[in-house]
Amino acid sequence: MKLSVTISGRTFQFDSAAGTDISIPLRAADDNITAWHVSPPRFEPVRMGNWVGDVNHGASVNFRDIFFNPHGHGTHTECVGHISRELFTINQCLKEFIFLCEVVSITPEKKGDDLVITESQVKRCRKNRQAPAFAIRTRPNSERKLRFQYTGTNPAYLHPEAIALLVEQGVEHLLIDTPSVDKEEDGGQLLAHRAFWEYPANTQSHRTITELIYIPDTVPDGTYLLHLHIASFENDASPAKPVLYHLAQ
Fold this sequence. Notes:
single chain; mainly beta; seven-stranded mixed β-barrel; globular; 11% helix
């Protein structure tokens, strides 16, 4: 369906049937993506006495319990409640779901044993200051990202100065294809998270971070319409389904 949307006085057209889902599906499989030392997710039929919630075991419906971790098992959107002493939930913090989103590709710089996305790289890539959402595709961009086991691999992360620049430029919704905007083992400092939410001095609870996305190479760098879907979890994070739509004027 062809639809129109007006943002900041500009009208764009997009095809609602032609979105690109940049989430990674959650699967009950050993090769489901994992991070932070979690085991693979489990999908298990409910068992009550002799009754098993599985059509193939005689039930009239499939009726499963699902055991997973939002942060460690796939694409998720988180709020400041991820690092705060105060209770913030993503269901309460995220109240708008459609944004202009700039997609950029960055090859993180080698800094000792780390791969770091720097302030200068972000400055070079950032073209559309009108887009409140910013999605980073790291290079190389193999489909291995759909199944990768990240624990102990020291994935790429954002330097806090890069985060500060994005905040200064009006980014309110940050998306990235790594498990975290921070270094895997940083002694609990979480400097990038803190810089993005300006916590605790000037907490910006409406901002969100979405991690473990996957942007295929069929999506060129540029500006898109982003529809950021979450489940209504009263938790610091929820599984997410960000969808990008090509825009035409």
